[in-house]
Amino acid sequence: MYLVYGNHGEAPTQLEDILGHVSRGLQLAGFDPRLAQEPVAGERNVVIECFDATFASKLARAARVPGTRIACIATEFVTDGTFNDFGPEASRRSVSRELIDSVSTATYRSLFPLLRKRAPKLIRMGRKIRQLSEGGVHNLTQYALGGYWRTRFEHFQEISKLLCAIWCVSEHQVAAYRSEFRETAVRLLPFLPLGSPGRPPTADGPQPDVDFLFTGTETPYRRRALETLRGLGFSVVVGNSLWPASIYRHFVSRSKVSLHIRQHERWPYPSNIRYHRLLEEGALTVAERSEYGCVQDRYVVSVDPSELVEACVREVRRGDHKQRGYAAQLRYYADLSGKERFSSLVRESFDT
Q1: Measured between alpha carbons, how far is 17 from 12 in angstroms, rounded to an integer?
Q2: Does 305 map to a domain?
Q3: Cα dist. 56→37, 141, 164, 241, 294 in Å?
Q4: Span 325-337, pLDDT tens digits
Q5: Res. 292: pLDDT tops 70
């Protein structure tokens, strides 16, 4: 079985959490997962959503070969014919917004071919984005770019009929995907413990020297909370999805409290992948409570968004950060397991 990554670039460090988890799950299910940059014709393939037309055509060619089976991991939320349109940031309409959309869509389509050939075009696009920012449009994260998400959704629609299964990373995605893609089996990819918890922290081990860690896209909403904590005199480290696993683990180990902050104030879902990864590392985690919950909620410090900063201050001053994080990890691993669910997922997706 092949885990295909080429649609995300030649070295997609942003996929390490998903690829690593799926690889371990497949191994426990009795498979020999192998990485491949391109779809492998005649074999079972697992690919993570985010396609351009060129990669969609590669999937189509592979799918025509007898024996080819393709499951796709869906990481985004379907919302009324696009991805992730929760407003107000994703639904705001203005001249600047439409211009950003056009730039973002063109950027998306040009990133997947060889970047060397497109460097002049990308430089021109970068200048446009800088001009927009200087003109007062500061919300330039992907969550505010409707054209980007519409383009991704359209390409996903194109390849959906080629798939033997869609694997959703959140239970809250499943119903919407089943409604939108009626001809394809939609199943839940279990982000649950695999294997055993880590070693307990020791009193004479390294002591954390970073107060708060957040890893993810730094949207304006998130930035306000992080800057508030900095203004109170706390040390805050912000990482992004391109951090290799070694850097991620390094800063988790050095941090007293790790954070989950919603993308913006109307974002309704928690990030179960972020929760799972932090619990795997034994991190004490403070998380904004979302409209919808997930199974990991009971293992993190879940608080009302209006109380986030207060809760952060309380938890960082309480002490015993590593011991409390490890206790949550032990409960997580004792209560839940993804091994059997992975076996069922693979069997139902590829053998039916």
Answers
A1: 11
A2: yes
A3: 14, 25, 15, 24, 32
A4: 999 999 999 999 9
A5: yes
Mention every residue, 6+ apart, whose C-beta is less than 8 A from residue 319. none
The two three-digit tokens of residue 244, written as one number? 């290799």
So what's the pLDDT on residue 127?
52
CATH code, domain with 314: 3.40.50.2000
Residue 252 sits in the same domain as residue 158: no
The whole-number pLDDT of residue 150 equals: 86
Residue type, 272: N
Pairing of strands 236-239, 255-260: unpaired
DSSP state of 200: P
Residue 74, classed as helix, strand or coil, is: strand
Listed in sequence order, the DSSP H helices in the chain are: 16-28, 53-63, 95-111, 115-134, 146-160, 174-180, 220-231, 245-254, 272-280, 308-318, 321-335, 339-350
Structure confidence at residue 12 (pLDDT): 81
Sign of CA pseudo-dihedral 301, 216, 50, 193: negative
Please give the distance of CA 183 from its chain centroid, rounded to a whole number.
25
pLDDT band for 138, please (50, 70, 90 cuts).
very low
CB neighbour list of residue 19: distance below 8 Å, 6 or more residues apart:
3, 5, 35, 48
Contact 193, 332 (CB under 8 A): yes
Q: Which two tokens stand for residue 205?
A: 């081990």
pLDDT band at 124 (very low <50, low <70, confident <90, very high): low
Are residues 36 and 79 in contact, defined by beta-carbon separation less than 8 angstroms?
no
Whether residues 215 and 270 share a domain: the answer is: yes
Contact 206, 215 (CB under 8 A): no
CA distances from 64 to 39, 41, 254 (A): 12, 8, 49
Q: What is the mean pLDDT of the chain?
A: 84
Contact 275, 259 (CB under 8 A): no
Which residue in this structure is represented by tokens 């005199």?
233
